[in-house]
Amino acid sequence: MNVRQQYLDQSPLQIAQQLAETFAQTAAVRDKQGGNPKAERDLIRQSGLLGLSIPKQYGGQEADWQTIFKTIQIIAQVDSSLAHVYGFHHLLIATVQLFSQPEQYGPWFEQTARENLFWGNTLNPLDRRTTATKIAKKEYIFDGHKSFCSGSIDSDILLCSGYNDAGKLLIGVIPTARKGVSFLGDWNNMGQRQTDSGTSHFEQVKIHEDELLLNPGPLSTPYSSLRPLIAQLIFVHMFLGVAEGAFEVAKQTVQTQKAWSKSLVEEAVNDPFAQKHFAEFYVQLESVRLLAD
Fold first, then answer.
1. Cβ of 28: how many Cβ atoms within 10 Å?
2. Distance CA 69, CA 80 (A)
3. For residues 101 and 170, what is the distance between their CA atoms, to the nearest angstrom?
4. pLDDT (tens place) for every residue of the chain, 293 residues total
5. Which of 258, 156, 195 is nearest to 37 (CA)?
6. Which residues pair with 146 in a beta bridge?
7. Full-model pTM
8. For residues 194 and 30, is the Cβ–Cβ distance under 8 A?
9. Exposure string (b/e) for 185-214, b if CB count within 10 Å is 16 or more?
10. Distance between CA atoms of 201 and 153, rounded to whole angstroms?
11. Residue 56: is it exposed, middle or buried by C-beta count within 10 angstroms (0-12/13-18/19+)?
12. Which of 147, 143, 195 is closest to 172 using CA atoms?
């Protein structure tokens, strides 16, 4: 049985839980090491979860967003870096749907579903160092640096952006292997060291006009304005998952601890101050869970 076959009869939430159990075995060590979690990203590819947000007509699963967010939350309970890049993959697919038309994004989605492609982010419109220069009737050159490019390394497709001479933001969809695209690997953060959120470099990268999201374009309609809401809900579920994971680890740790020497009880689980902290933490967690839902 190959890896993909073992997931055939399982729900997305069950698959996410299985992945989380696998990731949990190495997450702490990998976060200290940093670098790209290639093996773990390949497991996500093989799981089929990358097709959750793709419509069925293109070979995807067309899951509702509540399900997608929940899979992000489950993975974040053990590994926030993988939850981050996995969540951004679905954000980028949503971005293309919101900023372009089916006749443009259909082939990208079909290829993504068929080949289990991972989308990476070099969009970051706040970083204006990448320029977009028109060199022919239907051809542009992207040139410059782009920071905070989560999931860019080991991706298959990139969402990228640059500003033209008129100050207009242009967003393109290109293969990560496109000539002139490189990654500096300079991400050295405290926590989330495996999101590959470092700097990308575009060295005279050719982008064709039909690879640009021009109709309707970025944040040009009420419908397209849903994009930042999806982004923030991804972070809500990711941070919630992190907190839930911390809560579970704290519970497991306390089970084996003796109480403080001045406590009136022997075991930490029976200490009223420890119980108070756990109760307050649980109420906060439950409040966020209800708000997120």
1. 12
2. 13
3. 16
4. 445 566 768 999 999 999 999 999 999 999 999 999 999 999 999 999 999 999 999 999 999 999 999 999 999 999 999 999 999 999 999 999 999 999 999 999 999 999 999 999 999 999 999 999 999 999 999 999 999 999 999 999 999 999 999 999 999 999 999 999 999 999 988 889 999 999 999 999 999 999 999 999 998 899 999 999 999 999 999 999 999 999 999 999 999 999 988 889 999 999 999 999 999 999 999 999 999 99
5. 195
6. 200
7. 0.94
8. yes
9. eebeeeebbbbbbbbbbbeebebeeebbbb
10. 12
11. exposed
12. 143
Alpha-carbon gap, residue 148 to 169, rounded angstroms: 17
Residue indicated by tokens 């409040």: 287
- Amino acid letter for position 115: E
